[in-house]
Each structure stands twice: as structure tokens, then as C-alpha cells.
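Next comes this protein.

***
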Amino acid sequence: MKLKNIFVISILCLSFTACQSFLEVEDEGRSSIPVFFSDMDGVRAALPGAYSRIYKYYDSEFLLYPDVAGDMLEMTIVGADTKMAPQFNYISNPDQTIGAVSYIWEYCYDALTNINNIINYYPALLEKFPGNKNELNNIMANALFLRALVHFDLVKVYAQNYNYTTDASHLGIPIVLKIPGPNDNLKRNTVENVYAQILGDLKDADALFEGASFNENKAPYYASSSAVQGLLARVSLYMGKNEEAIMHASKAIEAKSLSQGPDYINVFTQNNFVGETIFKLNGWLQKSATSSFYNNGPIGFASTKLITLFQDQEDIRLDLLQVQNNGTHSTLKHTKTDVNQGEVQYDLILMRASEMYLIRAEANIKLNSLEEAKSDLKSLIARALQKTPIEIEITENTQEEMMNLLMNERAKELAFEGHRLFDLSRNHQSLERAENTLSTVQFIAYPSDLFILPIPQAEIDANTNILQNSGY
């Protein structure tokens, strides 16, 4: 079976036929690449091309998967081919060539092909065009950020959480730093090694962004110092490195404040409103599959479990839930009100200041710094209830009570933004859906093989060095 790996440079697309693996590119395509990276115009065009590939995998299945497989979303399954139905019912199959199992893997490694070209040609371009050093450093920083993001996304989907084993020695995903050739039969690296690569790329990106006079100008559609700090905070939290998570989250918070009142709603419903958004993907001329999933019907909507978490009906986050004729609640987080007729633009928000407050609060709870955690949670709750933090009382006083509060606040704040299953897994919590769930699966105890997807069988057939996940 021939699988495709596509290298995109802005409006110019070159297709490379993979040698029966998502991780390979044939010589025919390989020989064309140096031509495009021989001047500044080529690398300038390559960066938006790389971002386009990131949008593709986020919008296709990746952003949906953690919520569909979690406990805060329900699905209307209208047939066997309903999008994400296998993940909702936990019947993902390695042989599935259409859907999340195959597409997330394929599209992520597809994106890495584009990103690695930018990174690998950077030294030669820097030597050839020293007068463009600042611009090249900015492009390189973006590429390093994206490479870290893609590896992080892959390891969350196809490998167990970082602390699944005491030393993170369990199987992760193949680290790809260059275009693999026909004889490069890559193996799965350990989760420890994958995270080390992620941190290395992010720290290198941060160093390149430092001192760049224009690195924030294109934010939030491009990476920035704030986005690097935000992703470092998220990665550190997933690793259990709580002090580092607090440090990086604090730096991100310094650069981006919480959106208040109507501005909070505008963050989601208006493409042209930035507010507390740290990083998002440009959906210009993109017909969003994510938006269709949450708006047409909708297929995905809030679970009873999520709705019952909102104990105060004045919570502004309820304004982002729309009651349908059948009584279900659909999300407005992927509905845009500022798109003119005839235009198509569905931006995808990947990082917000609110998450940084939640990261810092969680890390402080795990360090038993409960008062510091309460301060951040009060800021979020006060914003939601349109009060001041001093008016908010938190009665929880133990680590366990505070973690329960934190998880509930994360569920309410980050619903439908691609976090829930990962939050459960990294905190070693079981999946427990409402008793009235429409899924065939109501409970899965942690740990479980089902908390990750199988490696596509097509990849394993093409490369015997790739081992399948346990249970598949």
C-alpha cells in the first residue's frame, strides 16, 4: 500500500510518495528540496506551509480526540462511519486507514517533514545570507517550536503518560529530526528520550527568540516567546516537574492577562479578537472539520457530567454552551460570528492565559503550596462569575480536595479544547462517564492500554522495527 508524505511550501505543493511508510520520502521528492531552500524566498514560504500542516492534523482528528475519549463530551452516532465513533466507544483498530488512528500519525509525521527541512537548511542559509540573521533566527525558532509541539502531540496519543513508568522508559514514538530515507527503519524512542527532545527544541527556540525585535508581532498566529513559555509550562506539568511548570507558566502570564466579561466570549467567537490567546492556528480559507463536528447537528456536545459541574448559573462559561431543541448543550467555542458571507475562517486556539493559571495552580497543589494555588483559582473563578478574587471563597483545604477542585475547573475552562483524556491519564485517574452516556463504554480503570491509540498497522507492516502498543 502506497502512503503519501506531502511537503508543502506555501502555495506550491510537492507530493512525495512514501516507501510504504509514513516515515520515508522517495529520492524523487528528496532531490527537489535543495532548490527550494537555496534562497530566502524558499524558507519564507516554507514556514506558513509548515503551519498549514499543523492545522491539518489539529483540525482533522487530533483536537477532537482527547474530548471524544474523555468524560465531558457526548456524541450522536448516526452510523458506523460517524467521525470519531471508534474513539468514543474505545474500539480503535490498528487496521483503520480512515480516521484518528491513521490520520493523526500520518499528518503529524507529514508536518515534521516540512518542519525538519526548515531546521536542517537553516545553517547553510545563515551562512549564505548573514544580513538576514534576525529573520532566519525567527523562522528557525518557529520551526523548533513546531517540532516540539508535533512530537509532544504524537507522544500523548500513541504512548502512555510520562510517569506511567518510574523512569519514563516505556515506548514512546519515533523521534524524527531529518527526512528518513528508504534504509532508515526508525524505532520507537523511549518516552524519556522524546520529552528530552521536546525540551531541547523549546529551549533552543527560546534562546533564538530572545532579543528578536519582532518575534511577538505575528503572534498569536506564529510562535513567540510567550508561546514557548506556555508550551514549556504544559510539558513540564505533564512530566511532573512542578517547579519548572510554575516558572514557565508565570512567564507566560506576565505577557498575557486574562480576558474579562464579553471579551472572554469574543476570544472564541471572533477570529480577529486576540484577548488572552497566546497561540492559535490560522483557519483562513479552511473548512473546519472541528467546527462541523461541534456545530452541524451537532455530533459532539456537552455531557451531563460537564453540565452538572456548573453550580452557579451566572458562570460566564455557560454563555459558550447553547441549548439545542433536544435539550443538549452544544459548544460555541468553534463558532465564529465575525466571518462575512462568502468567507471561510475557523481559527483553532491552542493556548490561552487561562490554561497557564490552571497549570500554575495544579503544580502548586502538587507541591502542597495550597494558598498559592487558591490565589490562581480565585482569579479564574472570579472572572467566570464576574466578581473580584477577594469575593471568592475556597473552602477546600487538603491536597486531595484541591486537586478535585482543580480538575473540575480544568474541565469547565478547557472543555472542547483538546485536553480531557490527557488530564485524566497524566494524573493517573480512571475514566468515569455519566450513567446516561451514549457510549458503549462508561468506565475504564487507570491504568489501561485503551488510554492510547494503536500504531497504524500500515506503519508496522512497512517497518518491522516499530512495535505495536500493548493490547492491540
In short: Strands lie at 3-9, 12-18, 73-75, 277-281, 300-302, 321-323, 329-331, 348-352, 431-432, 443-444. Confidence is low (pLDDT under 50) at residues 1-19. The longest helix spans residues 100-128. The domain at 3-332+350-462 is CATH 1.25.40.390 (Serine Threonine Protein Phosphatase 5, Tetratricopeptide repeat).
